[in-house]
Write a structure and sequence with these properties.
It is built from seven helices and five strands; from the N terminus they run βαββαββααααα. By secondary structure, the protein is of the alpha+beta class.
Length: 162
């Protein structure tokens, strides 16, 4: 089975610890959604949205481990699109609480692990689609755009398998 990750489960090191033997496939996109933060990463339906993320090949054991990590079925629900599984929060809302800096660093490392960029991250948030300003992004993320740029430039890059 294939699993689309858009949050901390894009981080290769952390996901391989949670799911030993998991196979990273490639970067991927999930259309019809956008990335939001309710302290944790979530995706909400958005007609013109696109979320950039990572695609994993998972076993039944990996799915059980991911279910536990994601708090399925109470915190996150499980959904499918084009035979790819992904999680969404059960109580979805638009950017209700910024992520912690620690959590955001994990996600940014995941973007880098899958060969994605700050531009991909911003597109996932719906910057162009929603006409978000720099101030909007700073509120959503809880940090300045300069800090976001520094995080994307400082995070290590691991080999990308495509």
């Amino acid at each position: 089975m294939q699993y689309f990750a858009y949050g901390s489960n894009m981080n290769v090191s952390q996901t391989q610890q949670r799911c030993p033997g998991i196979t990273r496939i490639r970067k991927s996109e999930l259309k019809g959604f956008r990335l939001v933060f309710n302290y944790h990463a979530d995706i909400v339906p958005a007609d013109e949205g696109i979320v950039h993320g990572g695609l994993w090949e998972i076993t039944e054991d990996h799915e059980v481990a991911l279910d536990t990590y994601e708090g399925y079925p109470d915190y996150y629900g499980k959904y499918y699109q084009d035979n790819v599984m992904f999680y969404r929060m059960k109580e979805a809302s638009d950017n209700s609480e910024p992520p912690s800096r620690w959590y955001l660093k994990i996600i940014i490392q995941g973007y880098k692990d899958f060969g994605l960029t700050q531009t991909d991250f911003e597109e996932s948030l719906g910057v162009q689609q929603l006409g978000l300003t720099q101030t909007d992004l700073e509120i959503i993320l809880g940090l300045s755009m300069n800090e976001l740029e520094r995080l994307f430039s400082r995070v290590a890059t691991s080999p990308v398998y495509q």
